[in-house]
Amino acid sequence: MTTNQPESTEARFNRLETLFVNMGETVVGHDNTIDVLVANIQQLTENLNSLAEQTNRNINNLAEQAAQDRQQAAIDRQEFRRQMEQRELEIRQIWEYLRDRNGGSNPPA
Question: Are 99 and 106 contacting, i.e. CB atoms less than 8 angstroms apart?
Answer without folding.
Answer: yes
